[in-house]
């Protein structure tokens, strides 16, 4: 299996997410019946309703639209970070039920992510890193064997696997949580792996809900940088980059 790269795919989303959010916004401020609302809001009026309600900070209407992503080729280190987001639903490939033995891997080692900094150091560094992963694979295989050689050993043998080990995740977030997630994780202060995944998620949701996510991105896109002394100092160019990619 070896060296992996991140793959992010928007698997499913609420059908016509912007129409539904606009309908919810309209319901709040008009005398219309649910039946009238259920007929929908014409495409030309949707952006107006959405922009108005978002400018007012009435963000609960965004919670009706949800988005489900398949993410693979990412590390357990990313997993620890993304699962801190509590207003989200996760399914994660189990290291208890899915073994990382050589025979199951159909390769030399379990899947893993080589950190950016290691790659920047050059081929020798990448080779050293891969050799270290191979060593961990040996330790893992030895423990599975000592625990009886079957799947009952996976849950404890995995203790010798690294943060670099690949995982696969299905995650669902509603539009409000996604905007919050992008705020934190598209920021230059976020760790490179989750930032790359967040950027990819943002680019994919923009295709299906361009108005909702028009101003989504790190904190500085919607106002002054919230990071204080820890700011990257590049708020202007970061903001331009995210607004341009809309
Ligand atoms: C750059 C960066 C560095 C970080 N470094 C660390 C670190 O060193 N150590 C560490 O432990 N974590 C760290 N984190 C993780 C961070 O502390 C949060 O756990 C994570 O970003 C999720 O944020 P959240 O709680 O706002 O989001 P979510 O869990 O997605 O929640 C969304 C929002 O819902 C509301 N909410 C959710 N649950 C509750 C609740 N129980 N009570 C009240 N309101 C709630 C809050 O308004 C919250 O902002 C870091 C995150 C970033 C982006």
Number of strands: 6
- The number of helical elements comes to 12
The biggest sheet amounts to: 4 strands, antiparallel
Sketch the topology as an H/E string, one letter per element. EEHHHEHEHEHHHEHHHH
Listed once per kind, the bound small molecules are: flavin-adenine dinucleotide
Mean pLDDT: 94
Spatial order of strands in the largest sheet? 2-3-6-4
Measured between the Cα atoms of the first and last residue, the distance is 36 Å
Provide the domain count: 2
**What CATH architecture label of the largest domain applies?**
2-Layer Sandwich
Text of the CATH class of the largest domain: Alpha Beta
Q: How much strand content do the residues show?
A: 5-15%
Structural class: alpha+beta
**Global morphology:** elongated
Give a structural overview:
This protein is α+β, with helices and mostly antiparallel strands. Helix content is 48%, strand content 14%. The protein has twelve helices and six strands. The chain has helices at residues 17-29, 34-38, 43-55, 76-82, 102-105, 116-121, 123-146, 154-157, 175-185, 192-208, 219-222, 235-244; strands at residues 2-3, 7-13, 66-75, 88-92, 111-112, 166-174. The strands form two sheets. It has a four-stranded antiparallel beta sheet. Strands 1-5 form a two-stranded parallel sheet. It starts with a strand and ends with a helix. The structure holds flavin-adenine dinucleotide (FAD). Flavin-adenine dinucleotide (FAD) binds at residues 84-87, 177, 180, 184-185, 189-190.
